Amino acid sequence: MTKIFEIPMYAYQKSPDQDATVPVRRPVVVIGAGPVGLGVAIDLAQQDVPVVILDDNDKVSFGSRAICFAKRPLEILDRLGCGQPMVDKGVLWNVGKVFFDSDETYKFNLLEEDGHKNPAFINLQQYYFEEYMVNRVRALQAEGKPIELRGKNKVDAVGQHEDHVTIEISTPDGPYILEADYLVACDGANSSIRRMLGLDFEGRVFEDNFLIADVIMEADFPTERWFWFDPPFNRGQSALLHKQPDNVWRIDLQLGWDIDREHEMKHENIIPRLHAMLGEDAKFELEWVSIYTFQCRRMEAFRAGRILFAGDAAHQVSPFGARGANSGLQDTDNLAWKLKLVLDGTAPDALLDTYNDERVYGADENILNSTRSTDFITPKSDTSRIFRNAVLDLAGRHEFARPMVNSGRLSVPCTYDGSSLNGPDDTELPQALRPGSSALDAPLGDGWLLDQLGDKFQMLAIGVEAETGLNACGIDIETITLSPDLHPELAARYLGNAAGAIYLMRPDQHVAARWLDFDKAAVLAALKTATSQGET
Amino acid sequence: MSDLIVTANIENVDDFYAALLDIHDGRSKDESDAINARLILLLANHIGDRDVLTKAMQEATQV
After folding, report:
1. Are A479 and A338 contained in the same domain?
2. Number of domains making up chain B
3. pTM of the model
4. Which of A52, A68, A86, A524 is most buried per CB count within 10 Å?
5. Would the ipTM clear 0.90, i.e. be above it?
6. Cβ count near A409 (within 10 Å)
7. Do A386 and B42 count as a contact with CB atoms less than 8 A apart?
8. Range of the domain at B49
9. Rounded-to-integer distance, Cα A348 and Cα A330, Å
10. Structural domain of residue A435, as residue ranges?
């Protein structure tokens, strides 16, 4: 059977731009049609910003790669109009088990809070993820939205100019040049754009190899995340078993640093390893295998003039904690609305600097968490191994040691504490929704609060009288009036013990500012602050 | 802000010291290292107070 990732999803087609005598200028060109590039392009096109995506390939992700998608990215994908097919196809899980040696040490439950549209996590192969995003691109095109996806368009060179970027592209029909007001580089950890610009990518190299095997098998393992430290079938190393749709199971085996890659990649050497783990009688078929190493690193700055870097091109983390694609989508969430306002001329170019500030902050949080997980999973000294094993010994018997077990701190949304875009806060309101945090979902009538939020500035007036039709600097604020009595879960999350509140929400569903009472001048000042045109 | 207690605080300290050595008696270096690590984690959790733990770690690294 032909796999989805073997079929060209966006086959090369010649564009009229290739025959233009003078290079065509596009507002935004995105390099890379992975989850991050497709995310930023869909976001822009939905808001009527013309966008062209270039990719040197024409297929979705080869192999499952990223498989674990968290609530916040699913919320972002909902706003982008392609979240539901992912949740429908994905495997929902909330129980994890940790094994040490031969024993089950403990099990945890993600214990989801009720009253959110999206689950805490789904497992879904990256090829499906990208397929559904490409489907969304096609749907937007059918609606007449300005989005183009050009396969087999390889970028050979980029040039920075004061008011644009030039992009030299090669195609099966030969080379052509495009110009862009802004270029978004989403071309992955080995970003060629980053290399062409000679930009740094500093961080820590982890001297370790991991074998990924996706196997297709009918197995009665429960839908849980199983993680082994030092199991009998992979002595001194770790292992992971996780379920994906279509009876595909992700197996991740730590191999150590000093290995013969070619030898380990041979199927005749992989099969016995899998039998040792799954049982001698297990019947399975290999779908995809890969050996990876990783680094935790980021670019010093995610903005270089008119070129913006997002996803793995800008930052790279270990896979533990599902922080790669998940953080990449949070990059695009942060970037798209800022690009739109700057291109519209309703916000200054300086707003794009805050993309760098906020997402560098997010990347550092992810790098910190994934580095700590890696240090726990692969102790780097005798003493760190002694403490790691002591934690695992104690975790079986004592609850206190379980939070210390770190097989990956699963991705949670980033709160932009200290961002220059944050306006006033009232600390009487719940801390979880302080300025900089992403909105919490809650039931609203027959639907969900988050379905009403995003793509524009909005003011939530919860139990407080407020004006409608506010506007400043050419930016409208939509007022949404909500009754605490009608929406008790929403009130509990947004008000705590307060009687009412005003929340100013950014187009990426993050809180810009909040107050106990409505004050028009304060809201308009906060809008200016949130778009980098506040008084300093 | 709690302070790390650095004045005598254990009754019958000779008994305690002997008991501490006793748990390592006849153990290999690896076993003793594991016991010490578990002991540190148990005590740290019992103390809980991050200020106290930070001061204890600072004190332990100063010789």
Report:
1. no
2. 1
3. 0.93
4. A68
5. yes
6. 17
7. no
8. 13-61
9. 22
10. 431-530
